[in-house]
Structure formats: C-alpha cells, structure tokens
Design a protein that fits this description.
mainly alpha, Amino acid/polyamine transporter I, globular
Length: about 400
C-alpha cells in the first residue's frame, strides 16, 4: 500500500471487532479450555471471511453500501437486517459499553456503580459521534489499535513458554450442553457479527467520499484485508493469554465486568510486568471506547440507511437528524436492556453472541447474492475461489445454526 492515509475502513472494522469477542470471549475460551477451542477461533475467522469482505468489495465496486444492495434483492433483506439491528444490536451496544465501563472501573479503581459508568460511556460516545462523526472516528482509531496490538503481541510472545500445548475440550464440571452453548457464543461474535459487513460498506463509501477519488478498489480491499486478518491474529493472542496464565493457574473467569476486566489487566501484568498495567489499561480502555464508537456508529448508520431504502431518500440535514435521534434511541434501549441483565455478566455476553450465531448464515447469504446478482460490474465480481469459499462458509454456518437450534429445542 503506497500511503498510510488509505488505511481507515479496515482498521475501523478491526476497532469494532477487538472488543467483546476478543477481550472477553477469546480470553474466556483460553481460561476455561486452554487451547481446546483454538480451532473454533480459527475456523470462525476463515468461514466468515468472504461474507465480511463482500461488504467492502461491494462498496468499492459500486460506490454504494450493502443496504442498497439488499434493497435491490427485494423488501425482505433490508427488513430482516433492520430487525437484527434493533433486536440483536441493542444487546451488542449494551455489551460493549458494559465491558468498557468494567475496564474503566478496574484500571482506575473507581468506586462508582458499574451501571453509572456504563451510562457515562454511552453518553460520551454519543456526543463524540454526533459532533465528530466519521473524521474523528477514523483518526483516533488508528492510534489506539496500534498501542493495544503491540502490547498484546508482546505479552503473547512472553506467555508462550507457559502454555501446555494440548487441546482439551473438558471444562471442569460444565455439562456437554453448556460447552456447546459456549462454543456457539464464541463463534457467534468471532471476529464480530456478520452485520458488521454492512458497517464496513458504509465506512468504505464514506472513505471514498473524503478521498476525492484517489483510492481505488484494490487499495480499499487491501485495507480491509489488513484489518480483518489483524483481528484474527489478536483473537488468537487473547486466547493464548487466557490459556497461558488463567488456565495454567486454574483461575476461573469472573462473573462481573469489573472482575473480568481486572483479570484481563492481570494477564499483561503477569507477562510484561506491573509497570505495563497502566499503559495497557489505558490502551484497552481506548480500544474498547473505539469499539463502542465503531459499533454505535455502524449500527446507527445502518439503521438510517435501512429507513432511507424503505421510505425514500432524505436530505443531508435530515440524515443528520435521523442519525442523532436513532443513536439516542438505540442507546436508551441498550441501557434499559442492560439494567435487567446486569447481574450475570457471562450469561448476558453469551446470549448476545449467540444471537449473532443464528443470524450469521442469513446475512452471509444476502451478501453472497448481492455480489453475484446485484449491480456489481462483471469485471469487479469476486474471483471464482471466493465465490466457492462463500458458499462453503454459508453452508457451514447454516449447519451449525441448525445444530444449535436443535440443541436448544431438544
């Protein structure tokens, strides 16, 4: 890549992904199962890659976001996607806010109630997005991601000698069904929910607008690939940290956001030294706050795009008003949901991530259809190997989702 300025949407994708799925779910997987679920993390990232890539690919090839492509397929895809945004992503916004508040409380030893801190995170993030919008989000994300990535890679290298290189699937007294449910939760948000492919398409379109046509399709796709595979690497790193410290020492993951955040900070302290905890703590807070920003922005932009596709175009001023109103409404709903689920952190996170597991094959199928049957120019369509990869991924995700439903209802 010729110029670092073209980096943006791919790193925003990484910022949205390296949150609950990595800091919480990957670390928990390593802490409870050692290396037993490493294959789940790797498989989820491999299987979902085409569905995520098609978001950036469609935007780069057509200059439009995926919601526009969904609408070209009929009324059902945008309506289904809108329902996912309202139902599933309300929980998701609550989850990333809670984890951010938990790390904030742990790093700075704050006495304030976790619910109050979570509300504070939501308010600050909303103000940042309403007044700063994409330009601020694009700039701040690059710095925060670099700090956390470097510190996480360093900690992982230092913990490698402690890891027992076996792959057990036992998890103490957890029944088989609970193990399978956790696997579904881990895979559901690994690296992030499929609807983030729509967020990626929206950010790519925005990046194209601000670049005055100086960024071509190949550069945008290279940017996405860097962000995507960086998130996959960091997911493995967090699993290895959990396996090398918590699993080896028999430390059970805490069932509260502040307690678990303290354990995550301890991973860095045990490997890099106590001096690193404040630095990594600030980086973790920064990245989680960036995750909040990226998730809130992506969900809100997507909801406004769905409304526009279903009800007709609106003016730029109308979009800004709709953006602010939708953001406030979504965060209010997320906070109310959180107030009911606050007392069981692990159960709340597992429920949120499991929802993504069930909707993934449907949204992946929409993305596949858009790339093949939409208005993508023939010369810009995916390579044959990517089309086959996409079909295989949809099949795998569909079979796992059906198996999950069978377990739930049996």
């Amino acid at each position: 890549m010729k110029n670092l300025k073209i980096l943006g949407p791919g790193l925003l994708f990484a910022g949205a992904a390296v949150g609950t799925s990595h800091l919480v779910q990957s670390t928990r997987a390593g802490a409870v199962f050692g290396l037993g679920l490493l294959f789940v993390v790797l498989l989820a990232n491999m299987v979902k890659y085409p569905a995520f890539r098609f978001g950036a690919h469609y935007a780069a090839a057509t200059g439009k976001n995926l919601v526009s492509g969904y609408r070209a397929l009929g009324w059902f895809p945008p309506v289904f996607f809108g329902a996912v945004l309202v139902l599933a992503d309300g929980f998701a916004m609550a989850a990333v806010s809670l984890v951010t508040a938990g790390i904030l409380k742990s790093v700075f030893a704050l006495e304030a109630p976790i619910l109050m801190l979570t509300a504070g995170v939501m308010i600050v993030a909303a103000a940042f997005l309403v007044f700063g919008r994409f330009q601020w989000l694009d700039r701040i994300n690059k710095l925060f991601m670099a700090i956390l990535a470097i510190s996480t890679l360093a900690a992982t290298i230092l913990v490698l000698p402690r890891i027992g290189w076996s792959f057990p699937l036992e998890a103490g007294d957890m029944p088989d069904l609970a193990v399978l449910m956790f696997i579904a939760a881990l895979a559901g948000w690994m690296p992030t929910p499929i609807e983030s492919s729509v967020f990626s398409s929206l950010w790519t379109v925005e990046k194209m607008k601000t670049s005055d046509g100086t960024i071509d399709r190949d550069a945008l796709l290279a940017d996405f690939d860097i962000g995507y595979w960086a998130t996959a690497l960091l997911a493995v790193c967090f699993l290895l940290l959990g396996a090398g410290i918590m699993y080896v020492d028999g430390i059970a993951p805490a069932d509260s956001a502040p307690g678990f955040a303290a354990q995550v900070m301890g991973l860095y302290g045990n490997t890099l030294g106590n001096w690193s905890v404040p630095i990594v703590g600030v980086a973790a807070i920064s990245v989680m706050f960036t995750t909040c920003l990226a998730a809130f922005d992506g969900v809100t932009r997507s909801l406004v795009a769905v409304a526009e596709e279903l009800h007709g175009p609106v003016s730029d001023e109308g979009k800004q008003t709709a953006y602010a109103a939708s953001l406030v409404g979504l965060l209010t709903a997320a906070f109310l949901l959180l107030s009911f689920f606050l007392h069981s952190f692990k159960a709340f996170i597992d429920f949120v991530t499991s929802l993504a597991f069930l909707t993934a094959p449907v949204l992946a199928w929409f993305n596949h259809r858009v790339m093949l049957d939409g208005d993508v120019p023939e010369e810009d369509k995916p390579a044959p190997y990517l089309i086959m990869w996409s079909r295989l991924g949809i099949l795998v995700m569909g079979l796992f989702a059906l198996g999950y439903l069978f377990l739930i209802f049996s």
